[in-house]
Amino acid sequence: MSKKVLSIIVPCYNEQDTIHPYISQMTDIETLLPELTFEYWFINDGSKDNTLSVLKEISKQSEQYNYLSFSRNFGKEAALYAGLEHARGDYITVMDVDLQDPPELLPKMVELLQKNDYDCIGTRRVTREGEPKIRSFFAKKFYKIINKISDIEIVDGARDYRLMSRQMVDAILELKEYNRFSKGIFSWVGFDTYYLEFENIERVDGETSWSFWDLLQYSIDGIISFSEFPLKLSTILGFISFVASISALLFIVIRALIFGDPTSGWPSLVCIILALGGLQLLCLGVVGQYLGKTFLETKQRPIYIIKDKKISSLEED
Ligand code: UDP
Ligand code: MG
Predict the structure, then answer these.
(1) Range of 88's domain?
(2) SS3 label, residue 202
(3) Are 234 and 115 contained in the same domain?
(4) Residue 184 included in any domain
(5) Which of 67, 122, 176, 219, by CA, is between 20 and 30 Å from 75?
(6) Span 151-173, mean pLDDT?
(7) Ligand 1 pocket test: which of 52, 73, 76 has the largest number of ligand atoms within 8 Å of its C-beta?
(8) CB of 39 closer than 6 A to ligand 1?
(9) Is the minimum distance from the CB of 101 to ligand 1 under 6 angstroms?
């Protein structure tokens, strides 16, 4: 009987110094899982350093190392999608190359997936040590908000690092949307997921490529992709201010009829105009966000463009 294949998808953006430590750790892990054939898919996401030449060099060393190299930086989500599209394994895992997704969890994940009826073994960080406090604070808030206002459930601290069955990956590939928010997609497709917990680990080398603003934008994208709550909120706000203005109008007219008061107070008027103007712009902005996403979706642009690749034939042994 031929061995089952485990595909490992590794997005790389400016990771020239982390690829070798990653491979040497993975080689140790491979010996713990002799029943599986490993194939790797390194995705060079338009790196500006020597990542591509490192990938070329390692892909010459062994048939199990494949790479796809993008024509520019398309983002980690695009890299994950490209990897999932190309992976041929019975099991598929996605992991970061910086060793923040501990490879030593892999044997346990494989065991859990094979022995139980799970379709996916995810991982979650139970600590966020080594990360700026403010980042952890906002991350926590983001998970709270998105879980409240969307139908999907995103586990706090869940990483993209996960081992999935072929069936689940095929389901994920059915979602061909341009604005990809993988954490949401993994949850949206359903299937039974079990989460393994681990403590945060710092990068082996290099620096995170996500700035605070990138993360903020990422969380807004996540909310817009998986919730219509901001749109509903705009409607509710509009309705409330409409009701309030009608009540105020009635109050003023009746008061004027009864007491014949001259209307005073232009400062309050200015405040109301500014408040309502601001609210309108805010709601317009919310609608604009959704419209913008829809606009990008309707263009049906490819999620990524490959400039260079090496795909070896899958060895059956
Ligand atoms: N990455 C990518 N494209 C990008 C940014 C990041 O493929 O535009 C990869 C990166 O090489 C790494 C993973 O995504 O393997 C996670 O990135 P990083 O370590 O910078 O993020 P963090 O761990 O801080 O969330
Ligand atoms: Mg990292």
Answers:
(1) 4-226+302-310
(2) coil
(3) no
(4) yes
(5) 122
(6) 91
(7) 76
(8) no
(9) no
